[in-house]
Amino acid sequence: MTTFSIDWTNADFNDLNCQNYQAKARTFAGRLADSIADGELPFVNLPYMDLLLRQLDDMKEYLSNFEHMLLLGIGGSALGARALQKAFFPQQDRPGHKGPWLWVNDNVDPAALQGYFDTLPPEKTVVVVISKSGGTIETASQYILAKEWLRRALGEDWKDNILAVTDAENGELRSEVEELGMQSLPVPDNLGGRYSVLSAVGLVPAVFLGLDYRRIALGAHDAAKELCAAKLTEKSLNDHPAWKLAVWNRALMESGYTELIFFSYIPMWATFGNWFAQLWAESLGKEGKGSMPLPSVGVTDQHSVNQMYLDGPRNKACLFLTCTGLDKGMAFPDTLPDKFAFLKGRQFGELLQAEALGTRMALTKTGVPLVALDAPTAGLYDAGKLIMLLELTTLLTGWLLDINPLDQPAVELGKRLANARLEAEGYAEEKADLKAFLEGERTIQEI
Ligand code: PA5
To answer: Active site includes 282?
Structure first.
């Protein structure tokens, strides 16, 4: 098997009202073609990729000067890079590793940042600050502190150890790059954080770790190419698995399936679950619509949340990910306790595959609508395909929900209130709200 296979047998299409959504294929084929032509969906047709690949080639030499990369970013500016490291550079997390090391700092955690500054060698560390908008306070505040750390250690040369990935023209970070002449790479227009792993956002860390970034880009390209035709037909859209997945998910939501399990039985790809959760939740959780993504890892989560999936509320569907070509690893020895004698002659990975099958069947037997995705390999090309498939599915599901899957308006309120709390200029309404919240009567218990 050399291609991704998708098993729809247990999707329960017959129990769902898919027709109304399927009927929109013609309209959405036109909308997709127009949006791509207008440059609104660069994550689909990747128009920036050829230039970026050359820029990444050129960046190799510069990055080879460093042993550590400290990535400052949050949300879509961090999750993809972490998933790539966990999946394709797992040696970093094992004993005896001699570098390079990628550290993804995506929280406002004073202890963690201090820990990095106390232990990383500044002269051997490149700080990569990633922010599409250039104004995200969590990232900006880390950058300000990292700059001071480098300045104190390296004096005038501090700028040589910073690389910014941000909008080509706008935002505070871009102004800083222009003013100080720091190294930078652009995030293309209309490429929002959670859709940006296949830009400099995810690929600069990939270059640093020595990953074959061309393979991942090719996988993504191949998964989308049928949808990038100038005259995209209704049939091409209908045939594409991203559209089928979108119709399936939209119909599931209509039938009360409010949760979507992303069950990965490719253990090293576990962190893609967190990347997908952000993509799905931030794109689709709007106007009371959407479904809650539940990233899960086989077999580990069989011994934690799986009981809930199997016998809790019947509101869950599942995307089930396996890899037929996964290395099965070492063989069991001849001498085994009686209870496990059946393992004789088998390989460790056969247990993973058997448990995957068992869990998949158990889920379907208990009525969880399930689509099984099987990757031929757990390599970069297939990861690129999966990333593109999930991004396209998210976009199209958003369109079927009649919401904008590319924005995230609701998360702005908490940010505005935090700014108001820190006495930032403006925010009069938020400051008044905060005062009322803090001075209002509260119900508090102490133990
Ligand atoms: O997916 C998104 O758009 C967000 O999660 C952003 O990635 C996150 O808010 C960080 O934004 P920025 O890259 O502008 O700092």
So the answer is: yes
DSSP 8-state assignment for residue 118: H
**How many domains would you assign to the chain?**
2
240 is catalytic: no
Strand partners, 157: none
pLDDT for 201-257, tens place per residue?
Answer: 999 999 999 999 999 999 999 999 999 988 899 999 999 999 999 999 999 999 999
- On whether residue 14 sits in a domain, the answer given is yes
Catalytic residue flag (residue 415):
yes
What is the Å distance from ligand 1's center to 239 Cα? 32
**Ligand 1 probe mutation, 71, 82, 132, most atoms within 8 A of CB:** 132
Ligand 1 centroid, distance to 51 Cα (angstroms): 23
Bond from prior residue into 100 cis (ω within 30 degrees of 0): yes
CATH number at residue 241: 3.40.50.10490
Who contacts 371 (Cβ-Cβ below 8 Å, separation ≥6)? 6, 7, 8, 10, 11, 245, 248, 318, 319, 320
Cβ atoms of residues 277 and 390 within 8 Å: no
Q: ∠ CA 246-249-253 to the nearest 5 degrees? A: 140
> Could you read off the pLDDT of 68-103 as tens digits, one per residue?
999 999 999 999 999 999 999 999 999 999 999 999
- Atom 13 (ligand 1) nearest CA: 131
Q: Is 122 in the pocket of ligand 1 (CB under 6 A)?
A: no
Residues in CB range of 13: below 8 A, 6 or more apart: 248, 251
Structure tokens at 85: 């490291």
* Domain around 244: 5-36+221-400
DSSP string, 285-339: --TT---EEEEEETTGGGGTTHHHHHHS-S-EEEEEEEETT----PBPPS---GG
